[in-house]
Amino acid sequence: MSERLHVRHHGSTGATPLVLVHGFGCDQSMWHHAVPRLADDFHVVTLDLVGAGGSDRSAWDPRRYATLEGYAEDLVDLLRELDLEQPVLVGHSVSAMITAYAQVMAPELVPRLVMIGPSPRYVDEDDYVGGFSAEAIEDLLSALSANYVSWARSMAPVIAGNPDRPEVHGELAEAFCRMDPEVAEVFARTTFLSDAREILPRVTAPTLVMQCSEDVIAPRAVGEYVASRIPDAELVVLRATGHCPQLSDPEETVAVLREHLTSANTPR
Amino acid sequence: MSKSRVLEAFTAALLDDDPRALYDQAPCGYLTLAPDGTVVKTNTTLRTMLRCTDDLAGTTLHELLVPSARVLVETHVMPMLRLQGAVNEVALELQCLDGTRLPALVNATAERDGGGRTTLVRMAVFDATERRRYEQELVGRAEEARAAQRAAEDAQQRLRTLVDTLQSSLVPRSLPDVPGLSVAGAYRPAGDGDQVGGDFFDVFPTDGEWWVVLGDVSGKGVDAAVVTALVRNGARALATSLPVRDRTPAHVLTQLDVLVDSHETERFCTVALLRMRRDGDRWALSYVSAGHPPLLLRPPAGPVRSVEAQNPPLGLGLRHEPGVLADGGPEQVELELCSGDMVVLHTDGISEAPTADGLWGDRGLVETLESIAAASVPAGEVADGVADGLVAHAVQLQGGRPRDDIACLVLVAD
To answer: At A33, phi and psi to the nearest 5?
Structure first.
């Protein structure tokens, strides 16, 4: 499973393990700015979900990954394989719900959870406000197909100079946010049409919910909803704006994470 | 162009196309954002695209995008900008102020400070209405092509189901239990089995007697299947409805010929008809053939004897030709089966199966029949063994893809 998910280990293996799971639209490069800030104190594990980044493309199956549970099973298998001591599972965006499923599937493997920008349901329904209409999600799928070529291009290895980092000029430049276009379409459907609300009350691990102050993908009301439904959850609202605080404000994100993990080091 | 002419043009451009005009009147929209997505500056081209006069400063990028584009920006474009400083050719839909939507292609670059923090984002926006329309047309065409392909596959599947259904009405899925007789049938359609074959057989009772019908309609397909159904069901109807004294294979054959002749078709049909009566521990058989390969009769110790009862095929109108039929009607042969006697009826798909050195032929068939029948098989399974063995052999001779339909019925008296 480590190979399938293109797992990378950072920092010291003896420290508290943090398993960072990226969401839709990107790959493990999502944690690029956070990892160096965490590596001193934690054993950081990053991975690419099947179909993203450097994962094993041949393992992708449109039926298996048509549900969040399919991704969650991969996480459970990986955690079982890695056999980490009291790991903290950190899920960003849709992967917050993937980690919730994994926690419910194998509570013994997931003693603690951190969710960054979680949303259990993106589409508005009755009294529930997810932030998107069903039409907007259909639009998104066609917007993805309009970007088919650029997604496809993102999968190709890039050899190019980087004006900001002349030292990598001429070498295999790091490719960011890679996602296979076919996978992107199915993953978008899985992500934005999913409804994970029923899993929240079944999460047994203490959970930190990190909510950005202005996030059009996961509005604050949604973060509050998540924190209110998980029995043992704490909500922290970040100053950071947007949907990806680990990129827009890695210092704050890491500081909050570190403080939470050291202040409550023993899981209940 | 002369040097002075170039200088003149350059000076004119400096006057008419100063940096401000170059920005405002650029052939693409410009947009500058603070790192949190707040709009700092726009050019006139962008405002024209968005149908607004306001400079938009202070609004957010998201307000200029349709909801789906916001998702792309937050989950992909912004991360890419923060990670690699630039994105190219992202297709985003803009929300114009008059309520319309504008498909656009966007290139963006991020200005970053020494610590790698994004300080500013610049976007160039190109109207992609026509391009998007064309792409959608292409996508639509591709979807139509896929739909047509699926429809063709569905039609093929329906056809196969139809063929199977039709075929199973021509060859019974299972044969009846006949007291005092082991009956086995085997059938294999020609080629890949995607056409209704012309071979058929049937075994059915009439007041204390048993009838066995096996035939072959010329050609294949639905047209042939119609004639096949006509002969098979006609034989049943005639054998059960004719007055008892007329209920002979010869009489049924005559009436079948009338039936097929009256049917508007170019097809003809060969058929073997057997009527069987239990007579103590024996079977009395009356047999007629209309242009069909001969019946094979094998006593328990062999050898195989072939029995002819030659009459013209059905549907050729030959019964009207003088001299073709004897005055008493079709030739009918009477046979008697004792315990262990075996009767084999088959179509020419077996006897005329092509082999490396010509046709398998009656002799090859008889030899194979002898060797299969002589093999030590439990008594109750001889009929099945021979029927399956003959068909399997004929198929194997043709490399697994028979040229013609193959049908075979084997009867063994208890």
So the answer is: -85, -20
Residue A163, pLDDT > 60, answer no
Using the Cβ of A39 and the Cβ atoms of chain B, whether some distance falls under 8 Å is answered with: no
Quick check: B121 and A248 in contact, CB under 8 A? no
φ, ψ of residue B354 to 5 degrees: the values are -75, 140
Task: Tell me if chain B has a CB within 8 Å of the CB of A133.
Answer: yes
Distance, in Å, from the CA atom of B180 to the CA atom of B300, rounded to the nearest integer, reads 16
C-beta atoms of B75 and A32 within 8 A: no
How far, in Å, CA of A101 to CA of A114, rounded?
13
Q: What is the Cα–Cα distance from B350 to B348, expressed in whole angstroms?
A: 5
Q: Does any CB of chain B come closer than 8 Å to the CB of residue A177?
A: yes
* Residues on chain A touching B63 (C-beta within 8 angstroms): none
pTM for this predicted structure: 0.62
d(CA B200, CA B214): 6
Q: Tell me the mean pLDDT in the region B73-86.
A: 88
Question: Using CA atoms, how far apart are residues A247 and B219, in angstroms rounded to an integer?
Answer: 74
User: At B363, which helix (H) or strand (E)?
Assistant: helix B361-374
Distances in Å between the alpha carbon of A236 and those of A252, A255, B99?
Answer: 11, 12, 37
Q: How far apart are CA A14 and CA A65, in angstroms?
A: 33
Q: What's the mean per-residue pLDDT of chain B? A: 87
Q: Which amino acid is at A229?
A: R
In DSSP terms, which residues pair with B201 in a beta bridge? B214
**Other C-beta atoms lying within 10 Å of the C-beta of residue B320:** 10
pLDDT tens across A51-90, in order? 888 898 889 998 999 999 999 999 999 999 999 999 999 9
